[in-house]
Amino acid sequence: QPELAVLGSDQPRLKTIAPDAAGTYATAVRDWAKAHLDVDLMGWQYTALELQLLHDDNGDLLHRVSLVSTARQNGKTIALTSLVGWWLTEFAILRGKKQNVLSTANRLDLAVNLFDELAPILEVKFGAEIVRSYGRNSVTMPDGSKWVIRAAKPSVGHGGSFDLICADEIWDISPIAIDGGLIPSQRARKSPLLSMWSTAGTEASQAMLRWREQGLRSIDQGIPTSFAMCEWSPPPDVDPMDPSSWHWGNPALGHTLSMETIKAESENPDRAQFLRASCNLWVASDRGWLAPGIWPALQHDGEIPAGGIVAIETSMDDSRYFGVRAVPLPDRKVAVTVEFVVESFAQCLMEIERLASNPAIKFAVSPSIDIHMPVKLASRKVVVGYGELLKFTPSVRSMIHEKMVLHDGSTQLAEHIQRAVAVRSESSIALSSQRSPGPIELARCAVWAIALASRAQPSGKPQVFVTGR
To answer: What is the enclosing helix (H) or strand (E) of 415?
Structure first.
């Protein structure tokens, strides 16, 4: 079978823009793994480490936070083991001061597995002192560098100050643990790194979803930031149950994984778990409102005209604000683009003022946005909600299927559109945030904006009627 010879890709499908760098420490990590673990890092492992370990002329890391995502059993643990081992030994010497390292995972036993693999090597080869008390496992190097292992509870990281934090399976780690526990523990360290690794999660994976959304925004904007992301996953335009698509989420395919193994897993009656664990897809994406391949085929290469309808929505936790603009094109088509994704309502108001400077733009806003809209825009806005979503979703889906909707290729918009799940209600369908496997605010905005922009536009000159007595 030809498909059995498919190899996983060393390069991820989604990768943030790399800043200008003097070099990367990934080569040193690869050499350390060969010398002390007797393993050759696979190409994808090197690629993931290469991005997050870029450094400047002073040797300082250019990324403070990174996220690597693949399907299960592709070798994330080996990459983590190599990173921690190199950091405690060679990198500590390079920096000339003791290093503090914390590794954590969604479960303590998973975090301890990394300790069980690496601690004996550090003890025998480097003279480290080992504490094997379960739940308080630690390694102290001769130079004073220390590695501690903890479960990812909300209190993790409190009371410590860490140069490197490795967090495994963050799909099941809470935002409180990451944003309130881990990240603040690195504030006083020079050039720290929070290295997060995981398989795709569920709609409850709030922390991972937020960081992934930040990575998608960075990719769309084409601007390097202090956050690095590499994700190996199938693109939205392929059928995840087609064996030819399985290499996207499994970069170790042909090395430590075989196509026969994935084929056997695909027979699992729990299809959602197969998509998440074996394909690195967020669960429920197989129930999307659009068939695979439809949305990517609608990309518009030309310029999106000015004007149109801007739909504005907030995330369920009011932490992000989204704006999507749709504008009519000839032949009754509609073009759609992402106008903004911001982190505060003050930024949202600035974007509204910017857009309002064009008198041809009108607004469709959700009720939570409406109460704060500038009064001067009262005549240029309509309020939309679930009722309008219920009314518009079928017609917009029909327009998409009939190729009457075009877009500018936004990665983030494509993710929201493709993951959106429609539910039936009151003899119609509507996109459901509760049923979808992640944020779909951009998809909801797109439905409102497309529907309103597609309404028949007045044409021709106005007629004047004169009546006599």
So the answer is: helix 411-419
